[in-house]
């Protein structure tokens, strides 16, 4: 099992995000993944830097840690040709340390270009077409594509790495997990659901299985839980809400009644290693081998020290 760190680009400035990637490498993480958003989730976040710029800067300041988007929607706000180019360039700049995480997106980020917000079935069709276009462009040479939703006209990505980036496809249900198995190289989820791993494998998937593990480190459990409520209360609304609301003010209204106690139920909160291992264990038991830790606590430097000295060794024992 490999351990990663979630760079929460909505809650920290681009400079802080790059600094955190450097600290994650120093603390012994195997990879980092950064959210690719146009808007933050809730008003308290106040940030939302451009993911590929932050990854390029992180690549220049690190040497071994792997980098990933967690995740990019490769249609509507972007055209898949642009994503193919951005991912190839990031792979080159990082020395082939880059994984392209993709998913069917959220209205929060995609509505901003005024192209509407399709139903989930159509978004899955668009995701399939986007992945086909990216693969086509990564094969070298000029290509065109005439799909039901997406088109490509006489395009070529000139700078391609010798080793193409891995594509990890995000899944909130079996349909998306099947897309990951058919067209991706890895699965990406946010819940410890065995059924998603099963659907992925039944569709032919045999690669890495990424999952985000929620925690909040602080010297006390109460401080950690309150920080998690402030920064990550949107995370307990579920994908049927998260995919559909358009702006931070809407998420503020939807989470008005969420309390710190609600977050305690979902997150490992505080300095107790055993509680964080308890939260991570179901992911391992469900078959996930790439755990990206989310720290919704108030002290990032304290968290990195906690991980390097206590949490990281405990989690690696869990995997064995």
Give a topology summary.
Layout: E1 2-7, H1 14-27, E2 31-34, H2 51-61, E3 66-69, H3 80-93, E4 98-102, H4 107-110, H5 120-138, E5 143-146, E6 151-155, E7 166-170, H6 174-183, E8 186-189, H7 194-202, E9 208-216, H8 221-232, H9 239-242, H10 248-254, H11 260-266, E10 268-269, H12 273-285, E11 290-295, H13 300-319
Parallel strand pairs: 1-2, 1-11, 2-3, 3-4, 4-7, 7-8, 8-9, 9-10, 9-11
Antiparallel strand pairs: 5-6
Helix pairs in contact: 1-2, 1-13, 2-3, 3-5, 5-6, 6-7, 8-11, 12-13
Overview of the molecule:
InterPro entries: F420-G6PD/mer, F420_G6P_DH-rel, Luciferase-like_dom, Luciferase-like_sf. Residues 13-270 form the Luciferase-like domain. GO terms for molecular function: oxidoreductase activity, acting on paired donors, with incorporation or reduction of molecular oxygen. Helix 7 (194-202) links the parallel strand 8 (186-189) and strand 9. 45% of the residues lie in helices and 17% in strands. An eight-stranded parallel barrel has the order 1-2-3-4-7-8-9-11, surrounded by eight helices. A two-stranded antiparallel sheet has the order 5-6. Helix 1 crosses helix 13 (300-319), helix 8 packs across helix 11 and helix 12 crosses helix 13 (300-319). The chain has a single domain, classed as Alpha-Beta Barrel (TIM Barrel). It is an alpha/beta fold.
